[in-house]
Amino acid sequence: MGSQFTDWQGRYYHIDQVLDKPGPRTDPAFLAGDGVKDFLRNQAKILVIGAGGLGCEILANLALTGFKDIHVIDMDTIDISNLNRQFLFRTKDVGKPKATVAAEFIMKRVPGVKVTPYFGKIQDKDDDYYLQFNLVICGLDSVEARRWMNATLVNLVDPENPESLKPLIDGGTEGFKGQARVILPTITSCYECSLDMLNKPTAFPICTIANTPRLPEHCIEWASVLEWPRVKGDKKLDTDDPEHIGWLYTAASARAKEFNIEGVTWSLTQGVVKNIIPAIASTNAIISGKSRTLETTESVDNTHPAAACCNEAFKIATSSAAYLNNYFMLIGTDGVYSYTFEHEKRDDCPVCGGESLELSISSEFTVEQLIELLVEKQDIQIKKPSLSTPTTQIYLQAPPQLEEATRPNLTKKVSELVPPEGEVTVTASTLPFNLSLRVTYT
Amino acid sequence: MVEAQDIPTATTSIVADGQPDSKTRRYDRQLRLWAATGQSALENAHILVISGSATSTSILKNLVLPGVGKFTILDHANVTPEDAGNNFFLEGSSSIGKSRAEEAVRLLGELNDGVVGIADTSNVEELLEKDTSYFTSFTIVIAHNLEPKLLETLATLLWSDDSFPPLVTVRSAGFLAEFFVQFHEHTVVESHSETAPSLRIDKAFPALLDYSLSLDFSAMDPTDHTHIPYVIILVRALEDWKKAHDGKAPQTYHEKKTFKAAVLDLKVKFDEENFDEAESQAYRCWTETGVPSEIATLFQDPRLSSLTPTSPPFFHLLSALQKFTLEHPYTLPLTSTLPDMKASTTSYIHLQKLYKARAEEEKERFKTLLAVPIDDSVVDSFVKNAHALKVLRGRKWGTLDADHSLLINALASSPKQTAIHLSLSALSALTVKQSGDISVEALTAEVRSLLPPSSELPEEFSDAVGEVARAPTADLPNTAALLGGLIAQEVIKVITKQYVPISSYCTIDLVDTWTGVI
Ligand SMILES: [Zn+2]
């Protein structure tokens, strides 16, 4: 890599202080000196998922701490509202892919670092791709993508091959709050194990939206959920398109006026339809990787999560200090409050637990009711599930022929199709794994 | 969602079709956190940062991005090869030998066209001797790893008058760090508390009571019955209960249970969710609305007994609030914000109007109690946030180290946090006395000299002091980034006077990944 040209004398003066000597709490296995520096600077290969608020911070911190082979995946392009915190982007970059612009910026600013961007989805890559890395850091704002990444890394683990275990560091942020966690797939609690910790997305009942709006939010939901498809037909609503937001704003305002409701604004309209949680630069810096997990949420970034994530990556890669076991949360609305704890692995975790999830339902429950229950369950978070047993297809969402063929089962009782203690396999296009349920009846 | 509703007042520049201008779009996410008032405070601020270290530029990055008005980096040093290796706001080896302040200001400036950056290559020590007014002209001053004698002089200077800017002191070594915000007094109106103010169901105002009594539940159209807001149901049920119970609300467990059952008995159909909601909110009937204890405590503030026309508006407002609570019904002014509840549009909007009208009346009453004229928008915000006001009183930097009893208490109550504080204090002291290796022994001896003779050092002390000896001059990029995030956040809270800033030492251990306060 020609590092002898870019590694000027004194470049690593700061970092080397913790690599040349152990501290009082450093693992005795830590090999201070040249060995660990060579691994960090010439061998370690690290993958960053996301080049948004947390991702920008993560990339800069990793580069400065001495990682020289960094890969980054992001499927988004730069929007003007990113510029108040995603500090690798400038006004001239609006519209360009985040991964590419971020990679170029880091390589220019921190000489000798190679950042390889991929402008696309994490799902585009196969197991061999992920196997090449020592570590993965996730700075994503999407629950779905994190679940996919988590499940992929858990499935990658081959007990015969210790190299197949890739530590996953996950960061998230929301306003003045942030978090960072370390996941050792199959060994510690995984992302799926803690799904019930996520905030439930705000959902307004359809009847309120359609018949009894009371808040400006109800009028905005009406415009986007009911009025848009009614007027625009199949045309997809693009929440990044100002014209679409403008249309919703006008429609919602008219409805609000009709019902004497105050408070519909452009900003609120955008906030509701994009499910925006406020974001500022400082929290990103802190966790450069915390986990807020509202689906379809526009990321909320504060910078501290990023720093915490990168610090864990550095400690794991160098053993210069023990890494986080396994969860760090920081709340800054009232003073500075943080909480470090071990999140426990769930035996019935559908990704890493191995045991089926027990579900007790009434013997009168219909298949349709079971589906509703699954969609509601906070620790599962699934949309449009398909159900089957080893012998029967209970209900399949797709393809259309099979949906039609299994639709009559929706009104049947589950107990007619599944014996007590019977296994039901749940699949969904958004889930990168199958969920196994053991059904009992009351 | 409540936050989001505050934005319209903030975003003044909206183009014809309602679409916000490019500045509002750029700051969209943060405006949802602190609105236009906070943004304007930020844009009027001028921040001084002493040193262009990696930690200093990390803090500044998080203030330049959201659009602080001006910042000055005061640093007479030139970029060393060591600086060029750990600071993202230097351009690698090409910055070596150039002014550190100028390089950092240039690269930080690229983050936001709307921010003015000033590089000042004067020597801090000389400025502190010759021109103290330099330091007092800023909104807030931040100093990273400033040598102890200069830090003490600066802290004493900025503490010497109430009107001088707050000082943020930051010290770090390797994986350990601490920061402290020195300020005299900090008042917060918009604390963004998650506690909602009382709906005063137990002390229903006349219009609310009259309305709930005017409805004949049993004669209502079934659809309307399903849409009576729970507030109305409870006011009515409570009034009926009081008539039968000597004017008293339910008190015993049994009475409360009976009351709830009576509420559910009002249902005409089993699936009337508004009555279920009323039952679950029934506690509001026996939770007496008074003055919250945190607010009552503020009425004891010495500032109120020595109020003069030139006292800060906050205390005039607080004084008026106290007078307000001494009148019937002995509560804070009514909130005009109604939570969502099961109701038809018309019944909800009607109820909302009742609350708004009453809140407006009470606000007018509140205004008559003010001894000095205060801008309406300030009064509005104060009344709206009256249930979550904060008054913080800070300490001078160094107070902890100067007082043996405080140190002993801190060691006993927060041993690992105090261990970090003392180790960093010892490091600052030693760095000036000696050059070369910093040993655990020398640091420990220095710590002992800060403590009363024969004090016990906690178990955790060796962890902290060992880490400091390991990396005494290391400004690690990750530690710098974490400090950058945390400190910028506190600075924003201080400048915007929103949310609640920290008023103690914050210590950070990135070996075991925790933060703590002393
Ligand atoms: Zn799991």
TrEMBL record, chain A:
E.C. number: 6.2.1.64
Record Pfam families: E2_bind, ThiF
GO molecular function: ATP binding; NEDD8 activating enzyme activity
Active site: C207 (glycyl thioester intermediate)
SMART domains: E2_bind
Top-level enzyme category: ligase
Pathway: Protein modification; protein neddylation
Keyword rRNA-binding found: no
Domain (E2 binding): residue spans on this chain: 359-442
Biological-process GO terms, alphabetical: protein neddylation
Highest taxon, organism lineage: Eukaryota
Keyword terms of this UniProt record: ATP-binding, Ligase, Nucleotide-binding, Ubl conjugation pathway
GO cellular component: cytoplasm; nucleus
Enzymatic reactions: ATP + [NEDD8 protein] + [E1 NEDD8-activating enzyme]-L-cysteine = AMP + diphosphate + [E1 NEDD8-activating enzyme]-S-[NEDD8 protein]-yl-L-cysteine
InterPro entries in the cross-refs: E2-binding, ThiF/MoeB/HesA, ThiF_NAD_FAD-bd, Ub_act_enz_dom_a_sf, Uba3_N, Ubiquitin-activating_enz, UBQ-activ_enz_E1_Cys_AS
Family: Belongs to the ubiquitin-activating E1 family. UBA3 subfamily.
Biological role stated in the UniProt entry: Catalytic subunit of the dimeric E1 enzyme, which activates NEDD8.
Protein name (record): NEDD8-activating enzyme E1 catalytic subunit
Native source organism of the sequence: Asterophora parasitica
Lineage: Eukaryota, Fungi, Dikarya, Basidiomycota, Agaricomycotina
UniProtKB/TrEMBL annotation, chain B:
GO CC terms: cytoplasm
Pathway this chain belongs to: Protein modification; protein neddylation
GO biological process: protein neddylation
Molecular function per GO: NEDD8 activating enzyme activity
Region (Disordered): 1-23
Keyword Glycosyltransferase: no
Pfam families, per database record: ThiF
Keyword Lyase: no
UniProt KW keywords: Ubl conjugation pathway
Domain (THIF-type NAD/FAD binding fold) ranges: 27-142
PANTHER family associated with the record: NEDD8-ACTIVATING ENZYME E1 REGULATORY SUBUNIT (PTHR10953:SF29), UBIQUITIN-ACTIVATING ENZYME E1 (PTHR10953)
Purpose of the protein: Regulatory subunit of the dimeric UBA3-ULA1 E1 enzyme.
Family: Belongs to the ubiquitin-activating E1 family. ULA1 subfamily.
Protein's name according to its UniProt entry: NEDD8-activating enzyme E1 regulatory subunit
Annotated organism of origin: Asterophora parasitica
